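INFO worker-7 received task bundle
INFO bundle size: 2
INFO processing item 0
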Amino acid sequence: MVTYGAALHIALAAAETLAGDGVDAEVIDLRSLQPWDEAAVLASLSRTHRLVVLHEAVEAFGIGAEIAARMADVGFDELDGPIVRVGAPFMPVPYASSLEKAYLPGADDVVAAVRRTLA
């Protein structure tokens, strides 16, 4: 899993859930987005042969799409499953905190994405 910012905690929670099921998930925390640590992500892809990109921003047209596109380009031969992006839906962020919690991706969404790459 590749993530950054507040989504790191979601990725770590998902990794803990997956570990309980016998899945060893690697989490990469991007400390900066420009430049981003492409070499670390490619090295992880080479070890795991799978990639899930997680962020709180909308799934479409963002940094996750760029990471997925770049890894599909330079790491295609390493992939054993689809690259899966997990992000918020393409809509305005709700103001109410109860709606915002439903809007943002959660650990269950990430666990489902990882399982999709393993299918």
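INFO item 0 finished
INFO processing item 1
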Amino acid sequence: MKIRVRGNPDFGEATCVLDPGEKLICEGRAMSRMSADMELRVKTQGGLLRSAARSVFGRESFFMSEYSNDSGGFVTVVPGTPGAVIHRQLQGETLILTAGSFLASSATVDLKTKFGGLKSFFSGEGAFLLFAKGHGDLLFNAFGGIVERELDGSLTVDSGHLVAWEPSLDYEIKSVGGLKQTLFSGEGLVMELRGRGKVWLQTRTLKETAGWITPYLMG
């Protein structure tokens, strides 16, 4: 599969050129355009229970779209919100995605929704995370621009800006300071990432953007 990402950082999209018989799995409604003879199948990736868990807890589609053609072709996919699209080629490793970040992948990439523990529940990103593992291409998206960092030590981030990270990194939910700072700074709880590995952060959050727009919609 050959992938070309365009439009970053504001309105990213990814064009995936498939070899004959190769399959692309993507979020429902993610297709923007494709070859005229491309075949579409709707499926539950990993079975009913895993699809239900991914939909309810991981904020991903219950039904995934599978594109393929015996002669090959292309499919262009776009995320539902404006922002950057990130391409990562997996070589057997695992990448952890926050809810709603998955866009598309090779059919050889396994997607599982896992309980991240109580620390995930209090992080603001939900108690369940999406684990992508295998050999193949993975596409995920950010809201706004993307910042990729190679971490060796620790980093404190607002959980709403966290998109993906490698499992070699551990994290802890903590307050910014004392009770006064936590209640009145507007920051609340943050995540402290520790270890060595890559982390992907987004420059904007949908929640804060929606909060900024809402007063204007109320007239």
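INFO item 1 finished
INFO post-check item 1: The chain has one domain: 2-217.
INFO post-check item 1: DSSP finds four helices and 15 strands in the chain.
INFO worker-7 idle
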